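Q: Sequence in, structure out?
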Amino acid sequence: MPNTDTKTPSPSKLVTSSAETEPKKAFYSNEEKPTGLFSTLPYYILIFLYAFVWYTIEKWHQPWLGSFVLFSFVPLLDVILPEDWLNPTDKQTKKLADDVFFKFPLYAGVITCWVYHYWVLNHLAQHDFGLFYTIGVLFISGGLLAANFPVCHELFHKQEKFDRLLGGLALVPLLYTHYFIEHQYGHHRHVATPSDGAYSKLGESVYDNVPRAIKRVFFSTWEIEKRRLLEIEECSTHWHPKNRMIWYVLGYPTFLALVYSKFGFCGMGLTMYLAFQAIVFLESINYVEHYALERKEIAPGEYEKVNITHSWNAPHRFSNYLLFKVQRHSDHHENGYKPYQTLASYDESPTLPNGYAFCVTLCFFPMFWFNTINPYVIKSRKGEKITAAEQANAKKWMNMFLGLVTTVFGLLMVLGFIFKP
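A: Exactly. Output:
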């Protein structure tokens, strides 16, 4: 449980109908530099995970061990470890924002993504390992590359040109560079409204949402660039060299051609599959982040301002470090340029019962997902706290699913050791 003995009141932005007598979870520390806020080491977990997966594949020829860790062990750690509700004070926020060392895990993430992508193509394209092994390598690699999206996301939200360039470059091997534009000027503008690709209704599955989101992201980017060039740049046509979407679209086959020149058709096919899985996982994260949350329409086509109730947060410690605090998503949408290390949690924000890493896997199994999350949505819409009975029922469904995932990936891991290539 988080420390609630501090004399500093917990942060609060909105008044809800929840009982005022309930203890607050979000808190400030009286320390000048609390380790939980000022240490950069936890943010290298993603790099460690890349290294671990590389080692288990390269040295042990065991790709399914990495999948077991990412999809079973990480959610378990989120259950076991204390939740992360510690927020920085205004003074601490300034120090954190000025600390350049928090950028190094991001830069390392970009470099590692490119190096790993090259290595996995070389590893699979140069040898015939068999179907079971190849599927295992591709599955864990797609998951890792998807976990790199928060790195890209953090960098292209920066105002510094170098950081934005790196954020865009990290999206190149994922064939989703146009996400750079749409996320900032489409998603952040239309979030929690039907105009947003990540918008979903109560009971809408990820299988209905993600294909629509991928399509909408692509065409929305065209419209954003068209509007920018015609209305802001005052160009005579949007078919102009300044249209970034043209360069992105041309860049995809160019990148695939470069892959083909080095790794042949096999490498090109592997690249397209890895990009496909990473994009599906990314849009699934967006689905989870805003599932069934809606802004009120105050006039036809006009919606209330975005606030901290329009995103799902998760205070789960391990995945918070792994994903660079993207789980403090409400604060991110209110303050898009805030560095990840300064983001805050709020008691009034809707809170998921487990971290993003678990919920993204969970949402691919609608029966488990809806029985877990829908009671939270209904209570959130009413501005009420979920009851103990509802929470226990949701936990029951989560535990069943975690047991199922652990069993499946455990069996795959054992088979991986038995049938080594």
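Strands lie at 27-28, 86-87, 297-299, 302-303.
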